Prior knowledge:
Layout: H1 2-11, H2 20-84
Amino acid sequence: MMEEIRQIEEQYPFYLTNDYEKEAASLLLVCQIEYTKKLYVLLKQLREEDKLHEQLLLEKYKSLESLKSVLQEASNLIRKAIAEY
């Protein structure tokens, strides 16, 4: 935790003063920036996972459509065979 704080202080240097409200506001801003960055990374990962999931669903749908057409053709052949019998 202390290492993270040190890294943040190095990345976003803000000057220590006796004005604790300014220090608190600066620290809050830094935390919001870091939180937003992490949230963006997570959202990007979720989008990538969603795209992969969507692609898998599309492949399954195409496979089911193919199976449906095969079953319809088989059903038509069976009906034709029954009608001719």
